[in-house]
Amino acid sequence: MHSYFVWGLDPSSTATGWGIVRFEERATLELHQKKPLGHLPHLVNSMIPEYIDSGVIRPDPNLPANARLGFMSSGIGDLWASHSGSRPSLANIEDQFVGINSKTQALISRAAGAVVGPLESLGVSCIDWTPTEVKKHVTGHGNATKQEVARAVERTLGLIEGRFSDDDGWDESDGVALALCPVKVT
Question: Please, what sign has the CA dihedral across residues 18, 24, 28, 33?
Fold first, then answer.
């Protein structure tokens, strides 16, 4: 059996929510209907997610925009150093929103670069996910609220309900939700 780590990162102009999930391949018994023999047990290899860690990189909001981005970029380096046993095979990054004003769009794009740059320079492939894709994967529908995403993450990973229930929690659960997204071919 093998396992791999996925990091999920949700960058914004004020914070980056992050989550680390390990996927472990395990053989499980499933029942399949096969005619004419009926239900037969069958061994299937499944990738089982396990919660490792999560948090929020939140710079002082009074810092100038470039200083906040530098703080978030060095925060990625700090995560790399403190999680040497769970370094990612890939990182899922939330893609920028469409339909927001151009100044906000520019700040969010720069925040994504502050997160992606250090990871790519360390050899980690970064994959973009839209908010709708993440919500659909985690909750089953693409218009889920932050609360629905948080509850789905908690249920999927067996975490205490309400763990992600404040502003920091929403950023954090978005990072973990991204880590739960499967590998996608781009």
Answer: positive
